[in-house]
Amino acid sequence: MIWDYGIVGQGLAGTLLHHYLSQSGQSVCIWDAGGSSCSKISSGILNPLTGRKFVKSWMFDELLKEAKCVYPKLEEALGENFFYERPIYRALPDRQAELEWDYRSSLPEYEPYIGSVSSNNDLPLHLHRDRPFVSILRGHQLRINRFLASYRKSLIEKGQYYKEFWMHSALKRDGDLWNYRGMRCRNLVFCEGAAAAKNPYLAALPFNLSKGEALTMRMDQPLRAIVKKGIFSVPWSSDRWWLGTANFWNYDDETPTPEGLGRILDRFSEMYNLEPGPVLEQMGAIKPTVKDRRPLLGEVEQSMFVFNGLGSKGASLGPYFARQMAEFMVSGKPVLQSVNIAGRQS
Question: Which helix (H) or strand (E) element contains residue 39?
Answer without folding.
Answer: helix 38-41
